Amino acid sequence: MSLEMTAGPPPSRRVKLPPQLLGSWEAGMLVFMAFLYLAGVLINPAFFGTTDAISAVLRDTARFGVMAVGMTFVIVNRDLDLSVGSTLGLVAVSFSILFAPTHLNLDAGTAMLICIGLGLLVGLINGLLVAILRVPPFIATLTMLFIGRGVVLGLTGGKTISYEIKARDYGFFAFGETNALGFNNQILIFLVFAIAGAVLLAKTRIGYETYATGGNDQAAQYAGINTRWVRIRAFLLSSLCAAVAGLMNVAQDKGVTSQYGQGAELIVIAAVIVGGASIAGGRGRVLGACLGAALVVLIDKVLREGVPTTRVIDVGGVKMEVAAMAQLPPGAVPAFLGLLLLGAVLLEPVVVRGNVLGRLKAWLLRQEAPASHDSGGIAIVGVKTMGAASDARGVGLRGFRAFLHRRDAAAIILMVVLWAAGFWLRPDFWGSLDNSFNLLLAFTEIGLLSLGLTYVIANGDIDLSVGSVLALSGAVAAFTMKELGGDPATAVVLALAAGVACGLFNGWLTAKIGMPAFVATLGMFYIARGLAAWLVSGRQLSAFPETYNLLGRNLSVVLESFGIHATGTFAAVARAVSVQTLFLAVVAGIAAVVLGATSFGQKVYATGGNERAASYAGINTQRVRLLSLVFSSLCAAAAGVIYVAYYRSFNPAAGQLRELDAIASVIIGGGSIFGGYGTIIGSLAGAAVITLIRALLSLQIFMSDGSSFVMPQHWMNVFIGLILLAAVIGDIWLRQNNIVSEWKRRRQARAQARHDTRATGVAA
């Protein structure tokens, strides 16, 4: 008897894409949002107890939610788009200029199509910079953020553009109105984008390719996925969504201001991360990001609305109770949102990878604790060392030829050329000691910031918080003297301590927790700025002790305060040289010696060149990275102390956009955004280049007909951003990849091949 076993066809299994439309994470967010809304009702029932509150939350969520849809694709791709706020502002301003009767006076449809094309162009530029030219995404989009913000200021001149009367004749503006059902039409646009984005990411090949690229770019390429196009496509979607959000804004407001979109990138990134996406890529859902946007907006509303209360005032001896609203001071909301961003990013390494919920469940049920989730992908992290062929060709050379092969040579030469250009344009003004003094004063602030950033960038990290730390330390010094009555020495010590605390926090998150430096310092960017405004209640403080103000004066003023009167040449020099210039020279000298002639400096270069190899060599790379970030914040704090002394007042806007100047200084001075390179003299030369460019652009040029011309200052950041992009691209392609020599080699190879072919033909 024989048994025959016939194996039937295997059951067909439907292959499902990894992501799902909705999960337990989103369910938990809904529960948390319900409790948060109830808290709002208890705090302020007059607002949150009405349908107006729900309508306002959904309306504001609509714009951020649309942007979060596009940002989800970028973050799942393991990239980041910091330019969405500027793109929103640029599109809104462009539409207003095209549509407003006081400007080009086009119809709404034409203006809308042009603006959609403009948004796609920004996304295409971002994608090409990141995917083709290999510029790190946070540098590419950070630069586009500042360029876009500069263009917005330049186009508006800092003024408001309004067109409410003309808007009545166009149906486009109905998108910003409340419909018959009682809710804003922008909510419908948000729902369309949310559903379309969720299906696109979860149930199509586009989504599959996005998850594959973000999870493991190299493996995705082996699987035949064009990862370059996937990344470009994500930036296109992100900018398209930002453009639509900009149009939603103008549809509602029927006008625009130069502040449109400021800070929107923080809210959008926080929304996507809070919604369950991983900053390390490969995970995230569109619906989670949309719920994250609603959560962030709801938190913002709860914090801003305040608590109804009553105050007792004395009017002519009569005590009267008046209704009032107790609110958080200015700066509290951005500080809280910065903390929210950092907390959301920490969910990945602490809660998700650590499997905290699973371990808690096992502990409650007295079961064996489950293993932590492996983050994956760490084994394929490649080395960062990117040797420059120009450095290799300079080995063995002497004199000027050796200097030309230095990475900082271009910055030094450009510095000399720019100064000579200023002298040629205005010799009557440019060569004077007074102008030199003013240039040195402007140079000190950027120079100090660039000193600390030289260490950080040589480490392969970045510090986006230096401008905000400058503001926080200045606020601490001003508050200590003005409100607490402290002496100048105490104010300086506390201000520097605040900077060190910020650096320690940045270093702990980056070196110890493993958070990407640009995310950790981006959070501090908002936290420190918010705390500075909170500390001074958004006011400008002034009238500090004159002994403190001497820190921002020239030597002649300091000497006169001690009863010493300089004469002759020494007096002229004393008027041109300031205390802060001498301070910068001392700090720069010490920093240069430490970086170039000590073991710690070599550890910095080794860590930035190849962190894993440096660890194998026995270097404590975590300590090196932490100390570098602390030094960067300390330099920023010193700049804040000098800022208050020089201007004899403190403004909460101190240090705005200075992080771009400082980063550009280091990169122009030969530092590599990939780490392993950078010199103090190069960074100072780069800072001088930035200072001289600003001075030249603000220089009054006299024409032959007697008229004069000055470059509009609103466009300044556009020039700085373009210079930074050129420096980064030049570092990648000219220094690292040596594209010119490669082109020459291939050309010579083709010429040799043609010559060999002709020789073979003649011989035959």
From TrEMBL:
A Pfam family assignment: BPD_transp_2
Keyword field: Cell membrane, Membrane, Transmembrane, Transmembrane helix
A GO molecular function held by the record: transmembrane transporter activity
GO cellular component entries: plasma membrane
UniProt xrefs under InterPro entries: ABC_transp_permease (IPR001851)
Bilayer-spanning residue ranges: 27-48, 60-76, 82-100, 112-132, 138-158, 179-202, 232-251, 324-347, 409-425, 437-458, 464-481, 488-509, 515-536, 583-605, 626-648, 660-677, 684-703, 715-734
Lipid bilayer topology: Multi-pass membrane protein
Cellular location(s): Cell membrane
Main location: membrane
Domain of life (superkingdom): Bacteria
PANTHER family given in the database record: ABC TRANSPORTER PERMEASE PROTEIN YPHD-RELATED-RELATED, RIBOSE IMPORT PERMEASE PROTEIN RBSC
UniProt-recorded name of the protein: Ribose transport system permease protein
Species lineage: Bacteria, Pseudomonadati, Pseudomonadota, Alphaproteobacteria, Hyphomicrobiales
